[in-house]
Each structure stands twice: as structure tokens, then as C-alpha cells.
Amino acid sequence: MALELTDANFEELVINSSKPVLVDFWAEWCGPCRMVGPVVEELSKDYDGVAVIGKVDVDTNPNISARFGIRNIPTLLVFKNGQVVDKHVGVAQKSQLAGKIDAQLV
After folding, report:
1. Which CATH number fits domain 3-105: 3.40.30.10, 3.30.1700.10, 3.40.50.720, 3.30.930.10?
2. pLDDT tens across 25-34, in order?
3. How do the domains of the chain map onto residue ranges?
4. Of the candidates 3, 53, 57, 99, which lies 20 to 30 Å from 19 by C-alpha distance?
5. Core vs surface per residue 71-104: b (16+ CB within 10 A) or e
6. In what order do the strands lie in the sheet with 75-80?
7. Is residue 9 classed exposed, middle or buried when 0-12, 13-18 and 19+ CB atoms within 10 A define those classes?
8. CB 93 within 8 A of CB 43
9. Annotated catalytic sites, by residue?
10. pLDDT tens digit string along 50-104?
């Protein structure tokens, strides 16, 4: 299951992670976010122990959203060594997102 990332735990779980991290910025009311949600959950199982997969609810965690300039959702950011290394805005296929994670595993 994808981790629930919050303003309180983001630094520890994402910025300080030694593994690549995929972060899904979403909201309950967002239709396209509901389409991406199951894909993110599948990825969390596929990459268990290899990469960190998490979700940020933009409505309840405005500080993280503002910090990374999230204006449209869903937005998916890939982090490596605490830095954003890739970004996708909008609905994405599983293979697209897996490719972004795989690129950071080498």
C-alpha cells in the first residue's frame, strides 16, 4: 500500500530516503486522481523494498504542495537523493510511471 505522506513526515520519508521515491499529489474530489490511484497502489506492491511510493492529499497538506509548486493534480514527482528528478502531470499509464522509477534504480 502506498504510504500516506504528510507535511509532518515528508522530510523523513521522501527527502531523507536512500531509495527512489514516487509521490502522487492528489485530492479526493479529483476525477483523474481516482484513475491514477489504483496504478500508484499497484506500483507500491511492485516496488516494495526497492522504491518508496507515497501519496500526498493536497487538501490536507498544503505546505508540501506549495513547496513543490503543485498547481495541477494529479502530479507525480520522482525523487532521488532528496531532489526532484522527474515529473508527470495528469493521468499516466503504469508503464510510464514504472519507467520513471526504473530510470532511478540504475
Report:
1. 3.40.30.10
2. 999 999 999 9
3. 3-105
4. 57
5. eebbbbbbbbeeeeebebeeebeeeebbebbeeb
6. 3-5, 52-57, 21-26, 75-80, 83-89
7. middle
8. no
9. 30, 33
10. 999 999 999 999 999 999 999 999 999 999 999 999 999 999 999 999 999 999 9
Helix (H, G, I), strand (E, B) or coil at 102: helix
Asked if 21 contacts 54 with a C-beta cutoff of 8 angstroms, the reply is: yes
Q: Taking Cα atoms as reference points, which of 5, 4, 24 lies closest to residue 97?
A: 24
Q: Residue 57 and residue 36: Cα distance in Å, rounded? A: 13
